[in-house]
Amino acid sequence: xxxxxxxxxxxxxxxxxxxxxxxxxxxxxxxxxxxxxxxxxxxxxxxxxxxxxxxxxxxxxxxxxxxxxxxxxxxxxxxxxxxxxxxxxxxxxxxxxxxxxxxxxxxxxxxxxxxxxxxxxxxxxxxxxxxxxxxxxxxxxxxxxxxxxxxxxxxxxxxxxxxxxxxxxxxxxxxxxxxxxxxxxxxxxxxxxxxxxxxxxxxxxxxxxxxxxxxxxxxxxxxxxxxxxxxxxxxxxxxxxxxxxxxxxxxxxxxxxxxxxxxxxxxxxxxxxxxxxxxxxxxxxxxxxxxxxxxxxxxxxxxxxxxxxxxxxxxxxxxxxxxxxxx
Length: 327
Hints:
By secondary structure, the chain is mainly beta. The chain has 1 helix and 25 strands. It is rod-shaped, with a radius of gyration of 43 Å.
């Protein structure tokens, strides 16, 4: 007997078996071997990465004995090329192969998928998988929020959205005061690594209204900006003193103190009132303080204020201090 392991089409043909023992003419037998080849693919996997808008071709060439049938699925779901005129299927059949060529025009993100060609005939079946990755600029960052707002800083956070099927390289953050446009030279720009999803904004001014926006970037370009986020920083204690402090004697036991509010850029909020302190210079005592609310003064605090101090000691020098407060 003759055993052929791992039969291939090359083994097909006529085999002659002869037997002879030296007596007579001997015996012979002609055996015809027919090799049937099941449907199979020479390669099992392929992939393509393209930019949105480019065309792609998927080649599914099944070898084997015809008739061969090929069915295409996309991410495991039967694929019907007739649903979109961007798809075109070209079939080609030879004696020992059947080819299917899928042409996808003007690719978009929906075409990113695993395409599987399943071939079968009477003698076997096989699969070929082809991964298509369509890349494009990313989508707008999602769920952009401002939190942890203080007088000088705030935290902005966001969620990664569609990356464009490639790595995000960075985020671009722009900040401006509400009074300015985005084209203003005062607009500040921060660049944040693409694997981050939050950033602490520092160097802000107290009680100031800001707008902020952010966009993502990958190797193909930027997303659009997210809608503007508006926030206002908190107040903090005034960083400058009241201005134009003057002291006038009213009598032997009383003084008049006049002053104006701190400079606007040092108020850091709405001035709510003042602490007025006084003590005798030649005595080792602490300052005595009076708390003066704005509504106790003669005006809103932006003009000159006047406060009288009474019940003082006669013929005595006094030190006077005035401190503004807000919040």
